[in-house]
Amino acid sequence: MSLRIITLANHKGGVSKTTSTASIGACMARMGKKVLLIDLDGQANLTLYFIPNENEIDASIFDSLVDGAPLPVKHVRDNLDLIPSSLEMASAEIALTNLLAREQLLSKLLEPIKQNYDYILIDCPPSLGIVTTNAFLAADEIIVPMTPELLPLKGMRMLDAFVSTLQRVKPNLRLGGVFIARFNHRKLNKVVEQAVKSRYEAITMKTHIRENIALAESAGSGQSIFEYDPHSNGAKDYQTLTEEIISRNQ
Fold this sequence. Notes:
Layout: E1 4-8, H1 17-30, E2 35-39, H2 45-50, H3 61-67, E3 74-77, E4 80-83, H4 92-96, H5 105-110, E5 119-123, H6 130-138, E6 141-146, H7 150-166, E7 174-180, H8 187-199, H9 213-219, H10 225-228, H11 233-248
Parallel strand pairs: 1-5, 1-6, 2-4, 2-5, 6-7
Antiparallel strand pairs: 3-4
């Protein structure tokens, strides 16, 4: 199987983007895939999933993007590597403004190492700036986690337009999937789900990620959901979603 680079993106925060990147990546690694996770968010939540002690991080993606240092790959689990973020990434938009070819810095940085992996998953900040542009132009496809609320649905239109703009630079870039996280059976969930399906029928994932307290608890524990509570609904749903993503790419 050839390498797939997948960016998980939604310019609204709080839609389980980081939880999804961590959980899908951990699941792929458990299935024997070689996986690299990249944390591009200044909050560094993806990094904290696997490296809860910030003192263990001596270099971050910021040093690579801004100073051209090699990507600081850290081995965090069997088959799973991570490129950590840091609080400095919060100022990356400003730091990158004057750099040449700034939208494709991540693509160039990945060139020497990407052949080592089956999947590279990129977690974006909740904005559509230079950092997210880097994540999109490095990717083969974009997968969008959504929560079942009306506001994220409106945001999808902005994301559509953003992808369309970037396709002028990278024609094969595409929205590859949309899935609903924090799903429950309240009426609004059903309404939003129907709206997502009617707009994105071809790419709406069959799997929902149900609302699950274990997912929230695992985030600060330094463990993926599969280590924290392997029998939880969260673990079961991310297992099913990961299998769906992999089967779509075969």
